[in-house]
Amino acid sequence: MIEQIYSYFSIEILYLWVNLGVLPFWLILIFFPQSKMCRFFVTSIFPIFILSGAYVFILYKSYLGSFNFFNNFNLYLGIDFTLDLFSDKSFLMFFWIHFISINLFTGGWIVNNSQKYLINKYLLIIPLLTTYLIGPLGLFIYWLIKIFYAKNLNLYD
Question: Does 49 reside within a domain?
Answer without folding.
Answer: yes
